[in-house]
Design a protein that fits this description.
By secondary structure, the chain is of the alpha+beta class. It contains 20 helices and 17 strands.
Amino acid sequence: MNYQEKKDKIVAYIKSGESQKENFKMGLEMEHFVIDKDKLFSYDYFGEKGVGDTLRKLNNMGFEVTNEEEGYILGLRKADIAVNLEPAGQFELAIDAKKNIKDLDESYKKIMKEIIPIFEEKNQYLETLGYHPKSKIMDLNIIPKDRYRYMQKYFKEFAGKYALNMMRGSASVQSAIDYYNEEDFKKKFFVANALSAFMYTLYDNAYIFEGEVYEKRNLRQEIWEYCDKNRTGVYDFAFDEDMVYEKYAEKILNTDIIFVNENGKDIYKADTKFEKIMDEDFSDEMIFHALSIVFPDVRAKKYLEIRMPDAVPYPYNISFPALLKGLFYNEENLNKLREDFKNMTYETCQKLKLDASKNGLYAKYEDKTIYEWIKYFISLSKNALNDEEKSYLTCIEKLVDEKETLRDKFEKIYKEDPKKACEKFSVNYAVGEFNGKA
């Protein structure tokens, strides 16, 4: 298979994700830390209070095992909910894509009401912060999964200073959007990347880094910038006029694969490029792996994943897909944003990110603060959503009106009482609100 044929294979895979507008859906994935209520340290997979034990309890409650290695349960599913783990035991919950934001909301509330009692029994919070509130990353063990051991080995050998912080220390909210053809893909990819610094800032929710106060803003952004530059952050071709499926495919072919699955077992491949791997295996499964082993702010598979926010508490987590739906699934709004950011380049995007890390909501792009831009985005989105869905934007609208981020709100409470801050930023607290008890 020659180079062009390899590109064509990846292009065909991405193209196969094209969807009719009437079938567009929103995906939602949320990561959490499991922490001790009293001492605030994080639990990893192991031990009777570890996350592994929680997965076994969920399995006993009727969750089906979807991933198991050497007797260790690593993934579960129940109905439209998948439960998986990030490298240091971060608890990840993914809801199958829905047409309506309310359906995402209802699935989230239903599953959390079922599983939070397990954490309560263990005197634990399921915590929604962008970084561990107390633990340092090397205090935690990697889950028993070969691919994460190989990723850690690769990052130590080839990657940046915060690569292990990304694996072991971060938690996020991510949403997925659909596209209907290559031109739509191109436009959405451009706009989503243009919004990078704005989304990092709006959903900034990390006050503690490695047990110490993080004085700057947008810690998640900083971690990804210094993780593995060839596969993270904003790709340098994101704003090119010729950014099409094929250009993304070229990037994937030229990226180290780290590991591959051969005969049911993960094998370490280090800095072998995916182009070489395709000499032997060009299956859809291998292409999916290659598309998944890169971690840019906006990632293409058979949909576009938008990956900037920290993990944030309810209802801010649901506000993210609602905001994106109003911006990206309304043609007029999408075209406005494409015009608004027509001057955006890779260099100006990076400059804005740097400014935002220092000045947060007061960083400026084209003489308007991020605060002013976000108010504009919310207004556009509200105008495109029905009354039920626009209600999910109320929380971020209020946040921006107060000129605060969730990091700021957490900081205020934390300075008075760290335990109280972690309680209020937990899913446990949100479930109490669902039930009228908090």
